[in-house]
Design a protein that fits this description.
5-stranded mixed beta sheet, Heat Shock Protein 90, Rossmann fold, about 650 residues
């Protein structure tokens, strides 16, 4: 009956009348401002970085077309950004159909630009021709200055609306385009301030892809400067990714062009266990891979198997090499250049290449290139093959160890570990698992938790460093085996993400050196062996308070030195006697009620979500801190010793 009442209430005359008067056409750039996330993915600060990328990519397109050799990026003190290149400059002559300057058309109309017919730009990062105009629409202010044909022209805009016609402003002795824009705080409500470290990362990646294009970055806010120029292109990138690792051979560079398609692939193996493979199309980082990455992996496995059979006299041992074996310790870049008008992506964010014709093209290029390289460099080929055989043996050993455990019913979840205090809730989306350091803290956490949705798993001592541990060693290590069983999704090739029992996995360790070390060991385990949990945002680090500040019966908790000083400064104005300050060295020092109120209660607690912003940087950090190479770790410690802090 309530449902019927609800429907009746919304079926009055005003809502049933549907005429042409109700049809609204959003003109010009209005749709961008109405639905900005449709065009740039997000209106968070990441959206501001996306806007900068769009403008930089226009300059890069000039370089890909062979006309620009420099790009300058300046972040001003008022948070506006200027991007300048020495390309041809945006045309300023009138477009007959619209009776307006080409510059104005490009900057104010969606799907307008020189990238659609493949003549002005054969290759570009842009697909839909919306980049510059979208950034214009989402900017409080924009000014574009064009240098070409010995003249300078300029036009200014306010939230995408031209403030005057394009006008000639003087003589020019160079060529290029200068774009200055201020992201609109009405759109980007989380803030418009760019993170210079993120900008450097964005630009550095592009500099690796386009050999001999120089980038010059200036941050007027901090007076920081950075320059990027790489002669070697993606070979330089592979060397950088393997900087802290022991490599087995020099980078293998493969290039092939066929019609409008061009492929560059660089491969280098190291003695580690993890894979770092990144793929790009034009200047776009395809984080989800696509047909080019599929073609590469197919060819890599086939080429190594063929070479193994060749040197074994037509036999490939026990014929056990699979794709996973060929990717252990692999660092690779797959870079495709193709006409932008035939580019197909899956999804709005351009994260996955969908062109089916690219897969056989890349597979052919990589297979031919590796066959030739193995033939000409037999010692390198044998080192790679030895590495792959070792990975194959380890995989089989891990499978045997894992199967033995599964036969006992452990990893299948037939019996959860006895130390796990599980929650009552069975819905993973609302269930939480606290991984707690030590039995003492585990006891407090078990008593203080909300049993409905919070599970507790105490770990005893420091766990295995899994940076250089294979699966068979991991599943034999008792504390990690208990964690794997508790999570329920398995590990290795039998991982089933749908069986993950908790969508919040929270590391809760003491705020001391040992606690930090245990947290790092756990982060290494998740990053290297259960990356799904990190990539999907399921991993968190709890932040317990560092101090309890007591004024008689009144007390406050502080989570940092700054917060402690602030609390004491505020209280000093009203309370005349000195406080008692307790520095918590471990979670076990708090009683269950305190632990719940400060660290576990969703209303009060502070959780830090663990995310991967820069895959390459994360890989390097784990290799440096947790790997076997001592010199890089020693340099890092010496460099950062004075800035080290235990405050979380």
């Amino acid at each position: 009956m309530r449902g019927a009442m609800f429907i009746t209430k919304h079926m009055g005359k005003s809502s049933s009348t549907y005429t042409g008067k109700q049809i609204i056409v959003l003109e010009g750039l209005d749709p961008v401002r109405k639905r900005p996330a449709m065009y740039i993915g997000t209106t968070s600060q990441a959206g501001v970085h996306h806007c900068l990328n769009e403008i930089i990519d226009n300059s890069i397109d000039e370089a890909l077309a062979g006309f620009a050799t420099n790009v300058w990026v300046t972040i001003h003190k008022d948070q506006s950004i200027t991007v300048r290149d020495d390309g041809r400059g945006i045309p300023v002559d009138k477009v007959p159909k619209y009776k307006a300057s080409a510059l104005e058309i490009v900057m104010t109309k969606l799907h307008a630009g020189g990238k659609f017919d493949g003549k002005a730009y054969k290759i570009s990062g842009g697909l839909h021709g919306v980049g510059a105009s979208v950034v214009n629409a989402l900017s409080e202010f924009m000014r574009v200055e064009v240098h070409r044909d010995n003249h300078t022209h300029m036009q200014e805009y306010a939230r995408g609306i031209p403030q005057s016609p394009v006008k000639e402003t003087g003589k020019a002795h160079d060529t290029g385009t200068i774009v200055t824009f201020l992201p609109d705080a009405q759109i980007f409500k989380e803030g418009i301030s760019l993170n210079f470290s993120s900008v450097k990362k964005q630009v550095r990646d592009r500099a690796y892809l386009i050999a001999k294009l120089a980038f010059h970055l200036y941050d007027e806010r901090s007076e920081e400067v950075a320059h990027y120029y790489f002669d070697g292109g993606i070979t330089s990138l592979v060397r950088a990714l393997n900087r802290n690792k022991t490599t087995l051979h020099d980078p293998i560079f493969i290039i092939k062009t066929e019609g409008d398609l061009s492929a560059e692939v660089c491969i280098q193996y190291n003695d580690g266990f993890s894979e770092t493979t990144e793929s790009y199309v034009n200047v776009i980082h395809t984080v989800e891979g696509g047909t080019h990455l599929t073609g590469f992996r197919m060819a890599l496995t086939r080429a190594i198997n063929d070479y193994a059979k060749k040197i074994a006299g037509g036999k490939n041992g026990d014929d056990s090499i699979v794709g996973d074996d060929t990717r252990e310790g692999l660092t690779a870049i797959v870079y495709i250049k193709m006409p932008s008008q035939i580019l197909q992506f899956e999804g709005q964010a351009k994260g996955k290449l969908g062109n089916s014709e690219v897969q056989p093209f890349v597979a052919s290029a990589v297979k031919e290139g590796l066959d030739t390289y193995f033939e000409e460099n037999p010692s390198d080929a044998r080192r790679i093959l030895e590495k792959v055989y070792l990975a194959s043996k380890a995989r089989l050993a891990a499978k045997a160890a894992k199967d033995a455990i599964i036969r006992k019913g452990a990893l299948e979840g037939a019996s959860l570990p006895g130390k796990l205090a599980d929650c009552q809730e069975k819905d993973p989306q609302v269930s939480e698992l606290f991984i707690v350091e030590g039995d003492s803290a585990g006891g407090s956490a078990k008593q203080g938790r909300d049993r409905k949705f919070q599970a507790i798993l105490p770990l005893r001592g420091k766990i295995l460093n899994t940076e250089r541990a294979r699966l068979d060693k991991i599943v034999e290590f008792e504390e990690l085996k208990a964690l794997i069983i508790a999570l329920g999704m398995g590990i290795g090739e039998s991982t089933n993400a749908d069986k993950l029992r908790y969508h919040r996995v929270i590391i809760m360790t003491d705020a001391d050196v040992d606690g930090e070390h245990i947290m790092t060991l756990l982060l290494t385990f998740f990053y290297r062996h259960l990356p799904y949990i990190v990539e999907k945002g399921h991993l968190y680090v709890a932040q317990p308070p560092l101090y309890k500040i007591s004024y008689g019966k009144v007390f406050h908790y502080a989570y940092s030195d700054e917060e402690r000083n602030q609390i004491m400064g505020q209280q000093a104005k009203t309370i005349k006697f000195s406080p008692i300050v307790q520095r918590y060295k471990g979670l076990g020092e708090m009683n269950p009620d305190q632990l719940w109120e400060t660290t576990m209660n969703p209303k009060n607690r502070v959780l830090r979500q663990v995310m991967i912003e820069d895959t390459a940087a994360a890989d390097q950090v784990f290799s440096m801190l947790m790997g076997n190479e001592v010199p890089p770790r020693k340099r890092f410690i010496q460099t950062h010793a004075k800035s080290a802090t235990l405050d979380i």
